[in-house]
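hey so u asked for the seq, here:
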Amino acid sequence: MFFVDIGCFHPTKYNNIDVYCKKGYRGINIDIDRIKIKRFNWVSRGGVNIAKEVSSQKGEKKYWTNGFYSLINTLDEVVDLGITKFL
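ran it, structure tokens below
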């Protein structure tokens, strides 16, 4: 089996990727946060891990987050989620 996880966050927390990998599934994990992708690379089980935004618009984007290893990252600057900085 094959999967694509967009906004993958963490290989074991709040995610089924660990379960899928233990069953032999392989796939692609995508997250805008490079720190999260580094974590996936550290525990990689043969999947492809990509640190990139997913958007219907071309070009570089700013993204907003509310801190280190945040549950909330967005490309939408008008979303009011208590986000305090952009990267």
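The chain has a mean pLDDT of 82. The radius of gyration is 14 Å.
lmk if thats what u needed
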